[in-house]
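Hi all, posting the design record for the shared folder.

TITLE: backbone redesign
STEP: 1 of 1
STRUCTURE INPUT:
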């Protein structure tokens, strides 16, 4: 079997003890009904991602996603390790992981979520299940798209302590709203990569404007309410609180009014 790096990997036909070392791999495994024995912590957190708590079962953390522990992985006696989107420091750890179990690299930096999902399914021998899952997703997206104003513009904003940042058109969240028939403002299409742009200054605050702003993107790991009860409504409250703090610090400048569509939710 060939992974996303072009490497030949011998993987079990029906892996039973899988360790996933990226968020996308954890998501894919659980979506495909594959239990995991090892996972990594959420970004900036000391525990696995909160939104996966109901799926974890007996899975244990093997450390930070940026530096998983080979010793912790070895103790789990895995028969397959999934990993993807590696940066140089993590890539340097591959030889030690390969001494433990077959390592299947599911995606490269810059690959979209669909490709990562399909590659993970390939490594897990669950391609038929993945095709069914994607078909269901596409059907649900098409149904929801028919209920939304066609062609409406959406800005996806993440609030940081220094102010708001606009998520890139290639970010996961943006690809989801695109599948719903929504668009991003033209001025935001130049943001490169799959992350976000620079902090938006007060002088450039109009760049946030869109027919349907989407506000509540904030790390669950940094919010007690969201960490314990993650939901669209609780994360929305976090986003509003963060926005309010930023507005208070910027009280000398008028904050733009949200549009008439701003109360609509995509989740």
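Okay, here is what came back for every position:
SEQUENCE:
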């Amino acid at each position: 079997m060939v992974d996303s790096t072009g490497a030949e990997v011998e993987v079990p036909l029906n892996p039973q003890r899988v360790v996933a070392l990226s968020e996308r791999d954890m998501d894919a495994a659980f979506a495909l009904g594959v239990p995991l024995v090892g996972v990594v912590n959420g970004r900036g957190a000391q525990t696995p991602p909160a939104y996966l708590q109901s799926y974890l079962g007996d899975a244990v953390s093997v450390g930070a996603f940026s530096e998983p522990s080979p010793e912790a992985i070895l103790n789990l006696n895995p028969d397959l390790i999934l990993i993807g989107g590696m940066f140089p420091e993590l890539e340097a750890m591959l030889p030690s992981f390969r001494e433990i179990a077959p390592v299947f690299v599911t995606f490269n930096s810059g690959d979209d979520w669909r490709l990562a999902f399909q590659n993970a399914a390939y490594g897990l021998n669950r391609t038929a299940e993945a095709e069914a899952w994607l078909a269901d997703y596409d059907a649900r997206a098409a149904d929801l798209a028919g209920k939304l104003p066609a062609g409406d513009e959406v800005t996806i904003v993440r609030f940081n302590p220094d102010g708001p940042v606009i998520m890139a058109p290639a970010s996961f969240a943006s690809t989801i709203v695109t599948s719903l028939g929504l668009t991003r403002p033209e001025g935001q299409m130049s943001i490169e990569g799959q992350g976000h742009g620079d902090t938006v200054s007060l002088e450039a605050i109009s760049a946030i404007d869109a027919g349907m702003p989407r506000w509540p993107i904030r790390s669950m790991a940094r919010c007690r309410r969201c960490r314990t009860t993650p939901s669209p409504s609780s994360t929305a409250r976090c986003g509003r609180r963060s926005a309010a703090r930023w507005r208070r610090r910027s009280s000398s400048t008028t904050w733009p009014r949200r549009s008439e569509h701003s109360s609509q939710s995509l989740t």
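COMMENT: The chain has two domains: 18-126, 154-249.
Let me know if anyone wants the other runs.
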